Protein backbone atom coordinates (compact mmCIF):
# COMPACT_ATOMS: atom_id res chain seq x y z
CA UNK A 1 0.00 0.00 0.00
CA UNK A 2 1.30 3.46 -0.91
CA UNK A 3 0.09 6.55 0.90
CA UNK A 4 -0.02 9.95 -0.80
CA UNK A 5 -0.82 13.43 0.57
CA UNK A 6 -4.47 13.97 1.45
CA UNK A 7 -4.90 16.50 -1.35
CA UNK A 8 -3.47 14.21 -4.07
CA UNK A 9 -6.89 13.02 -5.26
CA UNK A 10 -5.57 10.70 -7.97
CA UNK A 11 -2.70 8.24 -8.22
CA UNK A 12 0.21 9.85 -10.13
CA UNK A 13 1.10 6.46 -11.64
CA UNK A 14 -2.20 5.24 -13.12
CA UNK A 15 -4.64 8.14 -12.59
CA UNK A 16 -7.11 6.14 -10.49
CA UNK A 17 -8.96 7.91 -7.65
CA UNK A 18 -7.31 7.53 -4.25
CA UNK A 19 -8.98 6.35 -1.02
CA UNK A 20 -8.41 7.96 2.33
CA UNK A 21 -6.01 5.76 4.28
CA UNK A 22 -8.54 5.38 7.08
CA UNK A 23 -10.95 3.57 4.71
CA UNK A 24 -8.47 0.85 3.68
CA UNK A 25 -9.47 -2.53 5.22
CA UNK A 26 -7.51 -3.63 8.27
CA UNK A 27 -5.36 -6.73 7.82
CA UNK A 28 -6.92 -9.81 9.38
CA UNK A 29 -4.58 -11.36 11.95
CA UNK A 30 -6.61 -13.45 14.36
CA UNK A 31 -3.85 -13.86 16.93
CA UNK A 32 -3.31 -10.12 17.45
CA UNK A 33 -6.23 -8.45 19.22
CA UNK A 34 -4.57 -5.03 18.91
CA UNK A 35 -5.32 -4.79 15.18
CA UNK A 36 -8.09 -2.28 14.64
CA UNK A 37 -7.61 -0.87 18.13
CA UNK A 38 -7.05 2.82 18.69
CA UNK A 39 -4.25 3.50 21.18
CA UNK A 40 -4.00 6.75 23.13
CA UNK A 41 -7.24 7.81 21.48
CA UNK A 42 -5.66 8.45 18.07
CA UNK A 43 -3.28 5.74 16.76
CA UNK A 44 -5.20 3.03 14.90
CA UNK A 45 -3.17 -0.13 14.25
CA UNK A 46 -3.68 -1.47 10.72
CA UNK A 47 -1.26 -4.39 10.28
CA UNK A 48 1.74 -6.09 11.87
CA UNK A 49 4.97 -5.12 10.14
CA UNK A 50 7.65 -6.84 12.21
CA UNK A 51 8.61 -8.28 15.58
CA UNK A 52 11.81 -7.33 17.37
CA UNK A 53 13.50 -7.96 20.67
CA UNK A 54 12.10 -4.75 22.12
CA UNK A 55 8.60 -4.72 20.70
CA UNK A 56 6.14 -5.40 17.87
CA UNK A 57 5.92 -2.85 15.07
CA UNK A 58 2.65 -1.96 13.39
CA UNK A 59 1.69 0.18 10.48
CA UNK A 60 -0.98 2.55 11.66
CA UNK A 61 -2.95 5.69 10.98
CA UNK A 62 -2.87 8.79 13.15
CA UNK A 63 -6.59 9.57 13.16
CA UNK A 64 -5.97 13.17 14.18
CA UNK A 65 -3.78 13.93 11.16
CA UNK A 66 -4.85 11.07 8.83
CA UNK A 67 -1.19 10.21 8.19
CA UNK A 68 0.52 6.85 8.07
CA UNK A 69 2.75 6.02 11.03
CA UNK A 70 4.87 3.22 12.48
CA UNK A 71 3.95 2.23 16.03
CA UNK A 72 6.30 0.15 18.15
CA UNK A 73 4.44 -1.43 21.08
CA UNK A 74 7.01 -2.42 23.69
CA UNK A 75 7.12 -5.95 25.08
CA UNK A 76 6.10 -6.38 28.72
CA UNK A 77 9.60 -7.42 29.85
CA UNK A 78 11.07 -4.28 28.26
CA UNK A 79 8.61 -2.08 30.10
CA UNK A 80 9.70 -3.64 33.40
CA UNK A 81 13.30 -2.56 32.71
CA UNK A 82 13.55 1.04 33.90
CA UNK A 83 16.74 1.75 31.95
CA UNK A 84 15.30 0.35 28.71
CA UNK A 85 12.15 2.41 29.16
CA UNK A 86 14.24 5.50 29.84
CA UNK A 87 16.20 4.92 26.61
CA UNK A 88 13.01 4.95 24.56
CA UNK A 89 11.96 8.13 26.31
CA UNK A 90 15.36 9.64 25.55
CA UNK A 91 15.07 8.64 21.88
CA UNK A 92 11.81 10.57 21.66
CA UNK A 93 13.15 13.60 23.52
CA UNK A 94 16.36 13.79 21.48
CA UNK A 95 14.54 13.28 18.20
CA UNK A 96 12.40 16.32 19.00
CA UNK A 97 15.64 18.33 19.13
CA UNK A 98 16.84 16.99 15.78
CA UNK A 99 14.34 18.07 13.13
CA UNK A 100 16.46 17.00 10.17
CA UNK A 101 15.63 15.66 6.72
CA UNK A 102 18.03 12.74 7.20
CA UNK A 103 16.99 11.67 10.71
CA UNK A 104 13.81 9.70 11.32
CA UNK A 105 11.05 11.66 13.04
CA UNK A 106 9.94 10.19 16.36
CA UNK A 107 6.51 11.67 16.94
CA UNK A 108 5.36 10.41 20.33
CA UNK A 109 6.17 8.17 23.28
CA UNK A 110 3.50 7.49 25.85
CA UNK A 111 1.46 4.88 27.70
CA UNK A 112 -1.99 3.84 26.53
CA UNK A 113 -4.06 4.05 29.69
CA UNK A 114 -6.71 1.59 28.54
CA UNK A 115 -4.35 -1.31 27.76
CA UNK A 116 -1.33 -0.29 29.82
CA UNK A 117 1.10 -0.71 26.89
CA UNK A 118 3.87 1.74 26.05
CA UNK A 119 4.27 2.82 22.43
CA UNK A 120 6.82 4.71 20.37
CA UNK A 121 5.32 6.46 17.33
CA UNK A 122 7.45 7.30 14.28
CA UNK A 123 6.99 8.45 10.72
CA UNK A 124 6.43 5.49 8.40
CA UNK A 125 9.18 4.96 5.83
CA UNK A 126 9.03 3.33 2.39
CA UNK A 127 12.27 1.60 1.52
CA UNK A 128 14.72 -0.76 3.19
CA UNK A 129 17.63 -0.82 5.59
CA UNK A 130 21.16 -0.73 4.18
CA UNK A 131 21.63 -4.16 5.80
CA UNK A 132 19.14 -5.71 3.35
CA UNK A 133 20.89 -4.01 0.41
CA UNK A 134 24.24 -5.49 1.50
CA UNK A 135 22.76 -8.95 2.02
CA UNK A 136 21.26 -8.86 -1.48
CA UNK A 137 23.93 -6.99 -3.48
CA UNK A 138 27.05 -7.41 -1.29
CA UNK A 139 28.40 -4.00 -2.35
CA UNK A 140 27.12 -0.51 -3.08
CA UNK A 141 27.78 1.40 -6.31
CA UNK A 142 30.12 4.41 -5.84
CA UNK A 143 27.53 7.03 -6.80
CA UNK A 144 24.96 5.51 -4.45
CA UNK A 145 27.55 5.30 -1.68
CA UNK A 146 28.65 8.93 -2.01
CA UNK A 147 25.08 10.22 -1.98
CA UNK A 148 24.25 8.07 1.06
CA UNK A 149 27.36 9.05 3.03
CA UNK A 150 26.82 12.72 2.25
CA UNK A 151 23.29 12.63 3.62
CA UNK A 152 24.31 10.65 6.71
CA UNK A 153 27.09 13.16 7.35
CA UNK A 154 24.67 16.09 7.20
CA UNK A 155 22.32 14.39 9.64
CA UNK A 156 25.05 13.34 12.06
CA UNK A 157 26.86 16.67 11.95
CA UNK A 158 23.57 18.23 13.03
CA UNK A 159 23.38 15.80 15.96
CA UNK A 160 27.03 16.32 16.89
CA UNK A 161 26.57 20.09 16.87
CA UNK A 162 23.96 19.56 19.60
CA UNK A 163 26.40 17.37 21.58
CA UNK A 164 24.75 14.03 20.71
CA UNK A 165 26.84 10.99 19.71
CA UNK A 166 24.76 8.26 18.04
CA UNK A 167 26.93 5.40 19.35
CA UNK A 168 25.16 2.62 17.42
CA UNK A 169 25.71 3.32 13.73
CA UNK A 170 25.37 0.17 11.62
CA UNK A 171 23.74 -0.81 8.31
CA UNK A 172 20.56 -1.74 10.20
CA UNK A 173 20.17 1.87 11.35
CA UNK A 174 20.53 3.50 7.93
CA UNK A 175 17.17 3.36 6.14
CA UNK A 176 17.15 4.03 2.38
CA UNK A 177 13.98 5.52 0.91
CA UNK A 178 14.20 5.05 -2.85
CA UNK A 179 13.34 7.89 -5.23
CA UNK A 180 13.94 8.51 -8.94
CA UNK A 181 16.97 10.64 -8.04
CA UNK A 182 18.44 8.08 -5.66
CA UNK A 183 18.15 7.14 -2.01
CA UNK A 184 17.02 9.53 0.69
CA UNK A 185 18.58 8.33 3.92
CA UNK A 186 16.98 8.29 7.35
CA UNK A 187 19.20 7.64 10.37
CA UNK A 188 17.38 5.42 12.86
CA UNK A 189 17.58 4.60 16.56
CA UNK A 190 18.97 7.34 18.78
CA UNK A 191 18.14 5.22 21.83
CA UNK A 192 21.82 4.51 22.58
CA UNK A 193 22.90 8.11 22.14
CA UNK A 194 25.58 9.62 24.36
CA UNK A 195 24.54 13.11 25.41
CA UNK A 196 27.66 15.24 25.91
CA UNK A 197 25.72 18.20 27.26
CA UNK A 198 26.86 19.28 30.72
CA UNK A 199 23.73 18.38 32.70
CA UNK A 200 22.73 15.31 30.68
CA UNK A 201 21.44 12.30 32.62
CA UNK A 202 23.73 9.28 32.24
CA UNK A 203 22.13 5.88 31.61
CA UNK A 204 25.34 3.91 30.97
CA UNK A 205 27.52 2.70 33.83
CA UNK A 206 31.17 3.74 33.44
CA UNK A 207 33.07 0.95 31.65
CA UNK A 208 29.95 -0.53 30.07
CA UNK A 209 30.12 -1.21 26.32
CA UNK A 210 27.19 -0.13 24.13
CA UNK A 211 27.02 -0.55 20.37
CA UNK A 212 27.38 -3.15 17.61
CA UNK A 213 30.76 -4.96 17.66
CA UNK A 214 31.54 -4.88 13.93
CA UNK A 215 31.35 -1.07 13.81
CA UNK A 216 32.55 -0.11 17.30
CA UNK A 217 35.43 2.32 17.79
CA UNK A 218 38.26 1.18 20.11
CA UNK A 219 37.45 3.79 22.75
CA UNK A 220 33.82 2.65 22.66
CA UNK A 221 34.87 -0.99 23.03
CA UNK A 222 36.69 0.04 26.21
CA UNK A 223 33.67 1.90 27.58
CA UNK A 224 35.69 5.10 27.98
CA UNK A 225 33.94 8.19 29.30
CA UNK A 226 35.93 10.34 26.85
CA UNK A 227 34.04 8.89 23.87
CA UNK A 228 32.84 11.61 21.49
CA UNK A 229 31.70 12.21 17.92
CA UNK A 230 34.85 10.63 16.51
CA UNK A 231 33.40 7.23 17.51
CA UNK A 232 30.65 7.86 14.93
CA UNK A 233 33.37 8.63 12.35
CA UNK A 234 34.90 5.21 12.99
CA UNK A 235 31.54 3.45 12.74
CA UNK A 236 30.64 5.19 9.48
CA UNK A 237 34.06 4.29 8.07
CA UNK A 238 33.52 0.63 8.99
CA UNK A 239 30.14 0.71 7.24
CA UNK A 240 31.77 2.32 4.19
CA UNK A 241 34.46 -0.36 4.12
CA UNK A 242 31.77 -3.04 4.05
CA UNK A 243 29.91 -1.21 1.26
CA UNK A 244 32.95 -1.07 -1.04
CA UNK A 245 34.79 -4.29 -0.12
CA UNK A 246 31.83 -6.57 0.48
CA UNK A 247 33.13 -7.59 3.92
CA UNK A 248 33.42 -5.98 7.34
CA UNK A 249 36.89 -4.64 8.24
CA UNK A 250 37.12 -6.53 11.54
CA UNK A 251 35.97 -10.11 12.13
CA UNK A 252 35.72 -12.66 14.91
CA UNK A 253 33.74 -15.66 16.08
CA UNK A 254 31.96 -13.75 18.83
CA UNK A 255 31.62 -10.30 20.36
CA UNK A 256 34.83 -10.34 22.47
CA UNK A 257 36.95 -11.67 19.60
CA UNK A 258 35.60 -8.99 17.25
CA UNK A 259 36.47 -6.29 19.79
CA UNK A 260 39.94 -7.80 20.23
CA UNK A 261 40.40 -7.61 16.45
CA UNK A 262 39.34 -3.95 16.46
CA UNK A 263 41.86 -3.18 19.21
CA UNK A 264 44.83 -5.13 17.85
CA UNK A 265 44.57 -5.50 14.08
CA UNK A 266 44.33 -3.33 11.01
CA UNK A 267 42.05 -4.16 8.07
CA UNK A 268 43.54 -4.91 4.69
CA UNK A 269 43.44 -1.89 2.34
CA UNK A 270 40.06 -1.99 0.56
CA UNK A 271 41.65 -1.57 -2.89
CA UNK A 272 43.44 -4.90 -2.40
CA UNK A 273 40.07 -6.52 -3.01
CA UNK A 274 39.91 -5.19 -6.58
CA UNK A 275 39.15 -8.13 -8.86
CA UNK A 276 36.84 -9.60 -6.23
CA UNK A 277 34.36 -6.71 -6.22
CA UNK A 278 31.76 -5.51 -8.72
CA UNK A 279 32.96 -1.91 -8.60
CA UNK A 280 36.61 -0.77 -8.84
CA UNK A 281 37.98 0.61 -5.58
CA UNK A 282 40.36 3.58 -5.99
CA UNK A 283 43.73 3.31 -4.26
CA UNK A 284 43.15 6.79 -2.85
CA UNK A 285 40.40 5.32 -0.69
CA UNK A 286 42.98 3.27 1.24
CA UNK A 287 44.46 6.42 2.80
CA UNK A 288 41.02 7.79 3.64
CA UNK A 289 40.02 4.57 5.39
CA UNK A 290 43.33 4.29 7.26
CA UNK A 291 42.84 7.68 8.91
CA UNK A 292 39.10 7.23 9.56
CA UNK A 293 39.69 3.80 11.17
CA UNK A 294 42.64 4.95 13.27
CA UNK A 295 42.76 3.30 16.70
CA UNK A 296 43.70 6.57 18.35
CA UNK A 297 40.84 9.09 18.03
CA UNK A 298 43.34 11.95 18.15
CA UNK A 299 44.61 11.06 14.68
CA UNK A 300 41.24 10.02 13.26
CA UNK A 301 39.31 12.09 10.71
CA UNK A 302 37.77 14.85 12.81
CA UNK A 303 34.15 14.79 11.56
CA UNK A 304 31.73 12.68 9.56
CA UNK A 305 31.42 15.56 7.09
CA UNK A 306 35.16 15.54 6.44
CA UNK A 307 35.05 11.77 6.03
CA UNK A 308 32.20 11.86 3.49
CA UNK A 309 34.00 14.56 1.51
CA UNK A 310 37.26 12.58 1.58
CA UNK A 311 35.49 9.49 0.21
CA UNK A 312 34.03 11.52 -2.64
CA UNK A 313 37.44 13.00 -3.45
CA UNK A 314 38.94 9.51 -3.48
CA UNK A 315 36.49 8.70 -6.29
CA UNK A 316 37.59 11.84 -8.13
CA UNK A 317 34.57 14.03 -7.36
CA UNK A 318 34.88 17.78 -7.06
CA UNK A 319 33.13 19.82 -4.38
CA UNK A 320 32.01 18.42 -1.02
CA UNK A 321 29.32 16.37 0.69
CA UNK A 322 26.91 19.32 1.01
CA UNK A 323 26.44 19.33 -2.78
CA UNK A 324 26.65 15.57 -3.33
CA UNK A 325 23.80 14.87 -0.88
CA UNK A 326 21.38 16.48 -3.35
CA UNK A 327 22.84 15.26 -6.64
CA UNK A 328 21.12 12.38 -8.43
CA UNK A 329 22.78 8.99 -8.79
CA UNK A 330 23.06 9.64 -12.53
CA UNK A 331 24.91 12.93 -12.03
CA UNK A 332 27.23 11.39 -9.44
CA UNK A 333 27.91 8.36 -11.67
CA UNK A 334 28.98 10.73 -14.45
CA UNK A 335 31.36 12.52 -12.10
CA UNK A 336 32.79 9.22 -10.85
CA UNK A 337 33.42 8.16 -14.46
CA UNK A 338 35.14 11.46 -15.20
CA UNK A 339 37.17 11.16 -12.01
CA UNK A 340 38.68 7.86 -13.17
CA UNK A 341 40.22 9.68 -16.11
CA UNK A 342 42.30 11.93 -13.89
CA UNK A 343 44.35 11.32 -10.78
CA UNK A 344 43.39 13.49 -7.81
CA UNK A 345 45.81 16.16 -6.68
CA UNK A 346 47.57 15.50 -3.35
CA UNK A 347 45.24 16.25 -0.45
CA UNK A 348 45.52 16.47 3.29
CA UNK A 349 43.09 14.91 5.73
CA UNK A 350 43.07 16.85 8.96
CA UNK A 351 43.84 14.95 12.12
CA UNK A 352 41.01 14.75 14.57
CA UNK A 353 40.40 17.16 17.38
CA UNK A 354 37.84 16.72 20.13
CA UNK A 355 34.73 18.33 18.57
CA UNK A 356 33.41 19.18 22.02
CA UNK A 357 36.57 20.79 23.40
CA UNK A 358 38.56 23.99 22.94
CA UNK A 359 41.35 23.91 20.29
CA UNK A 360 44.38 21.93 21.46
CA UNK A 361 47.70 23.65 20.68
CA UNK A 362 49.42 20.26 20.85
CA UNK A 363 47.00 18.49 18.52
CA UNK A 364 48.49 16.09 16.01
CA UNK A 365 49.51 17.66 12.73
CA UNK A 366 47.51 16.90 9.56
CA UNK A 367 48.38 13.69 7.80
CA UNK A 368 49.24 13.99 4.11
CA UNK A 369 47.46 11.47 1.90
CA UNK A 370 48.41 11.61 -1.75
CA UNK A 371 47.76 8.53 -3.86
CA UNK A 372 47.06 7.81 -7.50
CA UNK A 373 43.45 7.09 -8.10
CA UNK A 374 43.83 3.69 -9.69
CA UNK A 375 46.84 1.55 -10.61
CA UNK A 376 47.15 0.46 -14.22
CA UNK A 377 44.53 0.96 -16.95
CA UNK A 378 41.18 2.43 -16.07
CA UNK A 379 38.66 -0.18 -15.05
CA UNK A 380 35.37 -0.52 -16.94
CA UNK A 381 32.75 1.93 -15.77
CA UNK A 382 29.66 0.27 -14.30
CA UNK A 383 26.23 1.49 -15.27
CA UNK A 384 24.72 4.03 -12.87
CA UNK A 385 22.79 2.41 -10.05
CA UNK A 386 19.10 3.27 -10.12
CA UNK A 387 17.05 2.04 -7.15
CA UNK A 388 14.24 -0.33 -7.86
CA UNK A 389 10.66 0.10 -6.70
CA UNK A 390 10.39 1.12 -3.09
CA UNK A 391 9.55 -1.61 -0.64
CA UNK A 392 7.30 -0.68 2.22
CA UNK A 393 9.21 -1.33 5.42
CA UNK A 394 9.10 -0.65 9.12
CA UNK A 395 11.55 1.15 11.31
CA UNK A 396 13.12 -1.96 12.80
CA UNK A 397 16.55 -3.59 12.84
CA UNK A 398 17.10 -6.59 10.57
CA UNK A 399 18.87 -9.69 11.91
CA UNK A 400 22.68 -9.70 11.71
CA UNK A 401 24.03 -12.10 9.06
CA UNK A 402 25.28 -15.32 10.61
CA UNK A 403 28.71 -15.01 9.01
CA UNK A 404 30.92 -12.66 7.06
CA UNK A 405 33.68 -13.51 4.66
CA UNK A 406 37.00 -13.56 6.52
CA UNK A 407 39.30 -10.60 5.92
CA UNK A 408 43.02 -11.17 6.33
CA UNK A 409 44.42 -8.97 9.07
CA UNK A 410 47.94 -7.89 9.98
CA UNK A 411 49.20 -6.64 13.34
CA UNK A 412 50.51 -3.09 12.75
CA UNK A 413 54.01 -2.11 13.79
CA UNK A 414 54.65 0.24 16.69
CA UNK A 415 51.40 -0.29 18.58
CA UNK A 416 50.71 2.83 20.71
CA UNK A 417 51.54 2.43 24.39
CA UNK A 418 48.04 3.47 25.48
CA UNK A 419 46.63 0.36 23.83
CA UNK A 420 48.77 -2.27 25.56
CA UNK A 421 46.81 -2.51 28.83
CA UNK A 422 43.57 -2.53 26.88
CA UNK A 423 44.72 -5.51 24.79
CA UNK A 424 45.71 -7.38 27.92
CA UNK A 425 42.38 -6.51 29.55
CA UNK A 426 40.29 -7.67 26.61
CA UNK A 427 42.32 -10.86 26.31
CA UNK A 428 41.76 -11.48 30.01
CA UNK A 429 38.04 -10.98 29.52
CA UNK A 430 37.95 -13.49 26.65
CA UNK A 431 39.95 -16.09 28.59
CA UNK A 432 38.06 -15.37 31.79
CA UNK A 433 34.77 -15.78 29.98
CA UNK A 434 35.85 -19.15 28.62
CA UNK A 435 36.94 -20.30 32.10
CA UNK A 436 33.67 -19.12 33.63
CA UNK A 437 31.68 -20.95 30.97
CA UNK A 438 33.66 -24.14 31.60
CA UNK A 439 33.06 -23.91 35.34
CA UNK A 440 29.34 -23.34 34.85
CA UNK A 441 29.15 -26.28 32.47
CA UNK A 442 30.42 -28.52 35.23
Automatic annotation (TrEMBL):
> What PROSITE patterns does the record tag this protein with?
PROTEIN_KINASE_DOM, PROTEIN_KINASE_ST
Q: Which UniProt keywords apply?
A: Kinase, Membrane, Transferase, Transmembrane, Transmembrane helix
Does the keyword section mention Transmembrane? yes
- Gene Ontology MF terms in the entry: ATP binding; protein serine/threonine kinase activity
Q: Which SMART domains match?
A: S_TKc
Question: Mind telling me which residue stretches traverse the membrane in this protein?
Answer: 418-441
Q: Which Gene3D superfamilies match?
A: Phosphorylase Kinase, domain 1, Transferase(Phosphotransferase) domain 1
Protein kinase domain boundaries: 43-316
User: Record's Gene Ontology CC terms?
Assistant: cytoplasm
Which domain of life does the protein's organism represent? Bacteria
* Protein name stated in the entry: Serine/threonine-protein kinase PknB
According to its UniProt entry, this protein's organism is Labilithrix luteola
Taxonomic lineage from the root = Bacteria, Pseudomonadati, Myxococcota, Polyangia, Polyangiales
Amino acid sequence: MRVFPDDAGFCPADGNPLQFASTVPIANTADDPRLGAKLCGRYELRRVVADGGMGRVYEGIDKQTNTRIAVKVLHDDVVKDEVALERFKREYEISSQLPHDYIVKVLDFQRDEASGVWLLVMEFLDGEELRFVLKREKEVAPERLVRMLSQVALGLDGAHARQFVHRDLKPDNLFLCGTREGDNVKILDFGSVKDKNKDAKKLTVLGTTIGSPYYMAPEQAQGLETLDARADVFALAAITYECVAGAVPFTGNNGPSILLSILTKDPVPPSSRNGQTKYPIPAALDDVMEVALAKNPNIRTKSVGDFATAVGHAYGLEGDHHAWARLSNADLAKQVAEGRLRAPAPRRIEAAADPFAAPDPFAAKPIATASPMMAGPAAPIPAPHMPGPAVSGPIVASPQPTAYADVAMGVPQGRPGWLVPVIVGIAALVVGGAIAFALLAH
